[in-house]
Amino acid sequence: MKELKGRKMYELPKDGLFKVGDLVNYEGPLMSLFSNNKGDLYIYDWSDCDDDSHRWLVYQVTLNQLRNYLNGHLTHYQLIMSNSVVFVVDLDSDAKPHNITLLATIDIPLDYLPDKDVLHEDEDCPHLNKIKGHLKDLAAIATEKTVVSYKPRLPLTSRKEVFTKQTPGAFPY
Amino acid sequence: MNEDITIFKYQKYLSSYENCPPTEYQEISMSAFRWIFEDINHENNFKPVLLIKPERINDKMFDSPEKKCEGYGLSLYDSLSNAKNAYDRIHKRNKNFSKMVGTYVAQIALVQTDGVASEFSTRKNNKGHFNFHEYENTDLSKNIITVENL
User: Which residues constitute the domain of residue A26?
Assistant: First the structure.
């Protein structure tokens, strides 16, 4: 497989990831969603292979980006390029990672990227319900955290009072 | 079904699963289409996915006995256009997909003594796809009629 620019890494710093499901599969996964118990989301995009290994682009996506992709508002290309860097990893037949590279997205070889107009299609996705269920759970957890952690940043006074109490030049926020 | 050809090519694997191949699979006579490599004798041209990469039997994709059974069959299409459309759709997303399946499509003459076939898929993106389990003495490479670029 081709040599890549970028920085060689000793390990893929993405411990604790578990597979949620495949977003694209043809006799094997071509695009898969992984997550961890913090709710981070990572995509593994199949990009190349040789006799010994399969090469994957690994990149993080936000919940909203993934929802937009699934709803057809973001292309596969945009999903990748929304990151400034991606990891490239070669997985051997035991799924053991080798040759890990941190690569600027602008340096991704063109043949590792999808056409710019490719959108998600439900028919390609054998685990759509599982993936949507996981995203729903993450959204619920995020809402819960927002409610629990909300603390008013200002005393519960009227906006008028706040401004009239401020000394000149001291912006209240 | 002829008694002396009911042993399948990969019988030792199929025997591990109940109803494999499924009883609804049927013998057929038709022209079928399969992606192959430029080298017409490439070892993977007519090899089921679970024999190309046996370790994949643990993949999520093969998480049921029915799916494992399918993994010992060959992917075929019912028409040239369906074979090309399915390839193009994947190739738009994964440019190196051809390294796994080849860059040519072979037209194969299937006859009833070659094996049994599933129903044809009606899925929009994989229309005309079907799974085919070969009988013991079948060699589909000998049944190629034409080959053309994908």
Answer: 7-149
Residue B94 is nearest to which of A21, A27, A46, comparing CB atoms?
A: A46
In Å, how far is A89's CA from the nearest CA of chain B?
16
Q: What pTM, to 2 d.p., does this model score? A: 0.82
Domain that residue B86 falls in? 7-149
Residues in B touching A48 (Cβ below 8 Å): 96, 99
CB-based contact, A75 to chain B, within 8 Å: no
Any alpha helices (H) in chain B, and if so which ranges? 11-14, 49-52, 65-70, 80-93, 98-101
| Closest-CA distance of chain B to residue A109, Å | 11
Residue A163 domain-assigned?
no
DSSP string, A96-114: -EEEEEEEEGGGS-GGGS-
Q: Give the number of domains in chain B.
A: 1
Question: Does some domain include residue A66?
Answer: yes
User: Domain tally for chain A?
Assistant: 1
ipTM of the complex: 0.82
A49 touches chain B (CB under 8 A): yes
- Position B2 in a domain: no
Contact criterion met (CB below 8 Å) for B148 and B105: yes
Task: For chain A, 173 residues long, give each residue's pLDDT as a single digit of tens.
Answer: 899 999 999 888 777 899 999 999 888 889 999 999 999 999 999 999 998 889 999 999 999 999 999 999 999 999 999 999 999 999 987 788 899 999 999 999 999 999 999 999 998 888 899 999 999 999 988 777 776 666 656 555 555 554 444 444 444 33
